Amino acid sequence: MADISCEVFDEDDQIYLPNIPQNRIITVQNVTKKYSEVPFSGVDNASFAIDKGKIVAIVGESGSGKSTLLKLIYGLMTPEKGHVFFRSELIKGPEKKLIPGHEAMKMVTQDFSLNTYAKVYDNIASMLPNTNLKYKVEKTESMLQLLRISHLAQKRVADLSGGEQQRVAIAKAIVTEPEVLLMDEPFSQVDTMLKSQLRADLRRLSHELGITILIVSHDPVDGLSLADELVVIRRGAVLETGSPAELYNRPRHLYTAKLLSDCNVLEKDAAEKIGVQVKKTVVGIRLEDVQLIENFSSGKMRVVDRFFKGYGEEVLLERSGVLIRALNLEVEKFQVGDLLDIGVKKVLSFD
């Protein structure tokens, strides 16, 4: 988290500016923007910081305030409390700007904001002035190549797939060389087969161009596979931050564990009934951490169902009324009614 000790008073905005480290590009300081209390909607006292050149994913369930937070960072909304800073500059909301949005940032929304009846080339080129036509052509063509869409240059946007439109929207956003690219659910209209390629391309863009990328997503895979840092948000509040590996392996909150992985959640009494000894109130056990041990004659767990997953199967086991799911990579090795024992490689414990 950035050092937010106050040093300089800004006369125009009537606030003390925080002392922010040089490598910090975005600082969110105690930001609140509420729509309703019951059910809660908005952002509540959120604080975190983003370093230059990083890819950061804000993750949380639907309605947790992710998109609102993105709009507050871009300057499309003004927080009721708190402040957002670009480096050491206060980001102003629409009340103080004729055209909302920060000049050093670009935002790609879920609707892409493209001229659907114009050609791909024209959508991208429209962002550049006509003062240097040679540069305009070269820059537009370089963006087409960078996003692997040169073959689509003369097609209308209306004739493209969702994934192709996504790439056009990104090219249009970065052709003016922004320092920060904000993306709201960037993979929502992209086929599963194309997601991995687009994630890889975004990492390449960040490294090659030095752009800081901030995405919001409800799909944990997007954050785990793409981001350098994750910001976990629940009911508008930032629950925890850290690298994908840190939050996956050592989550401090059950919400984070459930969000980032498919896991069994058991109360202490239920866990002990199936032989898992715990010291805290609740445990999370990921499916891949449950080991299935053949013991067809006297096993303590009974297979009650199986669900084919392609790469393997999910096995549902029961003992003393307690159900637990496990991942089995040897499809059809076990049948409904088989008796097994289990081992647990890792238990996530929570109060």
For this entry, give a set of tags.
5-stranded antiparallel β-sheet; disordered N terminus; 20 strands; single chain; 351 residues; Rossmann fold; 6-stranded mixed β-sheet; OB fold (Dihydrolipoamide Acetyltransferase, E2P); alpha+beta
Q: How would you concisely characterize the structure shown here?
A:
The chain has helices spanning 66-74, 120-125, 133-146, 162-174, 192-209, 220-226, 244-249, 254-260, 268-273; strands at residues 6-10, 15-18, 24-36, 41-51, 55-59, 81-86, 89-90, 105-108, 180-184, 212-217, 229-234, 237-242, 263-267, 282-286, 290-294, 301-308, 313-319, 322-328, 339-344, 348-350. It has 351 residues and is of the alpha+beta class. The strands form 5 sheets. The protein has a 6-stranded mixed β-sheet, with helices on both faces. Strands 15-19-16-17-18 form a 5-stranded antiparallel β-sheet.
